Amino acid sequence: MLDYDKEADAYDATRGGEPRAAAAADAVLGLVPEGTRSLLDVACGTGIVTRRLAAARGGLRVTGADAAYAMAHMAAARLPGAVLLADSRRLPFADGVFDAVTSVWLLHLVDGSDDARAVVAECARVLRPGGVYVTTVDKAAAHDVGSDIDAVLAPRPRRPAQDRADHIEAYAVEHGLSPVGQARFRGHGQGRSPRGTAADLRRGWYTQLPPGERLTEQFAVRLEALPDQEVPRPDPEFTLRAFQKPPA
């Protein structure tokens, strides 16, 4: 996994910046009921999406939480007094205190199904009765847009996807949540170019292809043989799922 303390400074610029953040926030808010008064953004990162959630609706109180100090520090500059350091598997809140909980681009990062279950369980725990949990699913799959880059990378070793939509739905149901909706949004600025993907391989973005190993370099060389080295392929489309806690 990437070191998100080291990634913080460049994170927004390399992940689509404000256009992607706007698309994500709009899609999330489309699944958060009107009248929601409090929202917890788990793994808020730099706060680029969290800030938009807070600004979009008058009267919505948004709290951000992230486990990486550098990320939380940047988020706190965007939402002073509303961000804290926290492990998403052990949230420092009482039961039933938020009207909505979000986790955007988190569950694909966890180490295994136990951690994914723990995150979903905590998000369900801190929801009030009737509250809604919104999360991204199937993130890695979204990046496969059918391009020539995807064809080159198809045989690479992959870690199991911990955010598979069917698995996340099962975990949510285990903890008393019911599916209530879904949405998709464009990952602006995240269409991959061959040269950029080769560079990502060599810096360790692909967890099953460590930098410096022969197989990693073989994939990088194949990418560098593709045409239009600097031309981004189509942007991915990410999927959100929403789950609701039964009313009291």
Secondary structure topology:
Layout: H1 4-14, H2 17-31, E1 38-42, H3 48-56, E2 61-66, H4 69-78, E3 83-85, E4 98-103, H5 113-125, E5 127-137, H6 139-142, H7 148-153, H8 165-174, E6 178-186, H9 194-202, H10 214-224, E7 237-244
Parallel strand pairs: 1-2, 1-4, 2-3, 4-5
Antiparallel strand pairs: 5-7, 6-7
Helix pairs in contact: 1-4, 2-3, 5-8, 9-10
In short:
The protein is of the alpha/beta class.
Describe the structure.
By secondary structure, the protein is of the alpha/beta class. The chain has a single domain, classed as Rossmann fold, CATH 3.40.50.150. It has 10 helices and 7 strands. The chain has a 7-stranded mixed sheet. Strand 4 (98-103), helix 5 (113-125) and strand 5 (127-137) form a beta-alpha-beta unit. The longest helix has 15 residues, at 17-31. 40% of the residues are buried.
Low-confidence parts, pLDDT < 50 over ≥5 residues?
none
CATH class: Alpha Beta
Radius of gyration: 18 Å
**Structure annotation, total helices:** 10
Number of domains: 1
Note the overall shape.
globular
Element order: H for helix, E for strand: HHEHEHEEHEHHHEHHE
Q: Compute the number of strand runs.
A: 7
What is the name of the CATH topology? Rossmann fold
Report mean pLDDT, rounded to a whole number. 92
The N- and C-terminal alpha carbons lie at a distance of 39 Å
Structural class: alpha/beta
Order of neighbouring strands in the sheet with most strands: 3-2-1-4-5-7-6
**Sheet of most strands:** 7 strands, mixed
